[in-house]
Structure formats: C-alpha cells, structure tokens
Design brief:
CATH architecture of the largest domain: 3-Layer(aba) Sandwich
Structural class: alpha/beta
Number of domains: 2
Distance between the termini: 33 Å
Number of helices: 11
Largest sheet: 7 strands, mixed
Oligomer: single chain
Shape: globular
Radius of gyration: 21 Å
Strand order of the largest sheet: 3-1-9-2-8-6-7
C-alpha cells in the first residue's frame, strides 16, 4: 500500500520504513496532535518515528479504495508523487490483514488496531441478533475499540470537528463512530460521489479554522488518475481552509487481482448449496462464506457437513479447491487455546 505523511507537522528528515503497518497510522496522527489516547494496550499499532513539528489545525486523512503500491508513480499519480516528495512516504506499507476488504482495512487505519481487535472483519458482519448486516450500518455492532475520531472528540469535550466524506456507509471505520456511551453522534458524515464539493462544504463550516485540531476523512474510489486529481483539489482546499496548518495522510485499501484460473466464489456457493441439498449460502465475501443459520437449523444441517462439502470440492484440474475449511468459532477458540 502507499502511505504518505505530509504537511506542516512533518519536519526534518523523517522516513517511513517499508512494511510499516496501517495500524500505525492512527497512533502517528495522535502523536502529531498531542492526543494521549487511553488504553493503548488494546491496540497493536504504535506511532511511527516521525519528526513532528507544530500541531496542525486540520488532519486530512485520505484513503484510496482498490489501490496498491503498484499504482503509484509512472506518471499516473502526479499529485500523490508530489506529496511523497514534500513529506515522508513508502509504497510498501503493510495492511496488516488479508483479504483486502475495504471496511476492515479502513477500520484498521482509523482505530490503530487489527481486525482481531476492532472486530470489523469485513463489509458484512453479524449483529447481536445474528442477522447479517453491512458494517457500520445502523443495525451493525460498533467497533470493539475506539477510533481516533472517537478519542479526539472525547478528549476535546466535543469541540473538535470530526467529518467523513465516504463512498459507502461502511467507510466510517476511517474515523470511528460514537464509541463512547452517552456521547452525541454529531460527526459530519457525507456519502457521495462528489467528494470535492462535499469536502468544500465541510471546510466552509469551519474545519481547520481555529486552534482546535479537526479530523476530516475522505474515501475515494474510481480510476487512479481521477482519484489523484481529486486528491489534489481536496488538499489544496484543505490548505486554504487551515492556513496551511495541515497534516495530510494518504493511504489505500489495496488491490487484489484474481488469478486467471481462479474459481469464482459465486460458483463455490452454488456448488455448496447443491452438495448440501439446501440454500445454505447466505452471502460470500473475501473473508469466507456466511451460512444461513435459519436454513441449517430448519434442515438440521451440521457445520461438519458444510465444512466436509467444502473440503471435498475440486478445482477444474482435479486438485482440492480449498486447503481447509472451518467454522468461524474455530478462529475464536484459536485465539484463547
């Protein structure tokens, strides 16, 4: 992944090591704005060793969806290249987890913890009722650990402005969301394809205009060249609004190119339903298959039957399709046993 820190807060000859994990983004921002986040032991991320200058009035955090380090350079990203030259950067940051699910990775960036800590393992999660819902939707469980935006808002007694311009609701992990009980959910959340206009509107409301550090997250998607141009317009507007008292952080969610010989997950789901003799597949995501609990309860189908069916599947060349298959609870037991 690309990872860039630029702006007035970055001074001296700071360098980013290749392999810097994205769970270190939030702690690094916290260090730059003198935010002492509580309970650091619940997060894997630690601050990167950057030379930090003045405290910024605005932190602009931009995430490029579907982009990896291979997209940077070669003339395709002049704005991002310029930020890398002005600040400190690497094109080989480590997302910290696979597969590349944007909801999980954005929450890693926003919290400073890995999915095993923040609990947003993908774009789909089960809520307390066992219902499959979109991450960060109204019915979804919150992140297990606080986001940087949550801690900043709590520390400032609600004075800092916290905002997000997103492509989808599940992008909210980049800033967090109402983690503290009793705290008003007053973050500015705009879901739109017109990122520049939305950012301009929020900046006009006073982001970066006073001595209170504000946080504005932006998630972009689309063609790399288009995102790069949009990035340039957003950074320029943020510089003007903050009188150049700005910390810019740019990173990405990664790009996973399927192998030409890969078997589509839709085919796997169809074959599983056929093997079991019932529509047991509720959804398929990069992290695995969600099984319809109502169907297996009604048909009295065991998880062993499902995992055995998956293991017995064959690829077109006759080899076993999956190296292994196991229910989600096995992962939970693995953490504690």
């Amino acid at each position: 992944m690309p990872l860039v820190f630029a702006g007035s807060s970055i001074t001296g000859s700071s360098t980013l090591p290749d392999g810097a994990r994205l769970d270190r983004v939030a702690p690094t921002i916290a260090a730059a704005i003198d935010l002492d986040r509580p309970h650091p032991e619940v997060r894997t991320g630690t601050a990167l060793p950057l030379e930090i200058g003045e405290r910024p009035a605005l932190v602009l955090e931009v995430a490029l969806k579907g982009v990896g380090g291979e997209a940077v350079g070669a003339g395709a990203t002049p704005v991002l290249d310029g930020l890398m030259e002005r600040g400190t950067a690497t094109i080989a940051a480590d997302p910290g987890s696979v597969p590349f699910d944007s909801a999980a990775i954005l929450t890693t960036i926003g919290t400073g913890g890995l999915p095993s800590q923040h609990g947003i393992t993908g774009s789909l999660v089960r809520n307390d009722a066992g219902t499959l819902v979109r991450a960060w939707s109204g019915d979804a469980p919150p992140s297990v650990i606080a986001g940087l935006g949550d801690d900043l808002d709590e520390d400032g007694d609600g004075a800092p402005r916290i905002g997000l311009v997103a492509t989808r609701d599940e992008d909210r992990g980049l800033i967090g969301g109402n983690w503290y009980l009793g705290a008003p959910d007053d973050d500015d959340i705009v879901v739109t394809k017109k990122a520049v206009a939305a950012v301009s509107d929020l900046l006009a409301e006073g982001y970066g205009a006073d001595d209170e550090t504000d946080l504005l997250g932006v998630v972009l998607t689309g063609e790399v060249a288009t995102m790069d141009r949009t990035l340039g317009e957003i950074v320029a507007a943020a510089e003007r609004a903050s009188n150049e008292r700005l910390l810019v952080v740019v990173t990405a969610t990664g790009r996973a190119e399927p192998d030409a010989a890969a078997v589509p997950w839709a085919d796997v789901a169809e074959d599983l339903d056929a093997a079991i003799g019932a529509p047991v597949t509720e959804a398929v995501v990069p992290g695995g298959i969600y099984i319809d609990q109502a169907v297996i309860a009604r048909e009295q189908i065991t998880e062993r039957e499902i995992t055995n069916a998956l293991i017995e599947m064959r690829a077109p060349d006759g080899d076993r399709l999956l190296a292994d298959a196991f229910p989600a609870i096995a992962i939970s037991f693995l953490r504690y046993c």
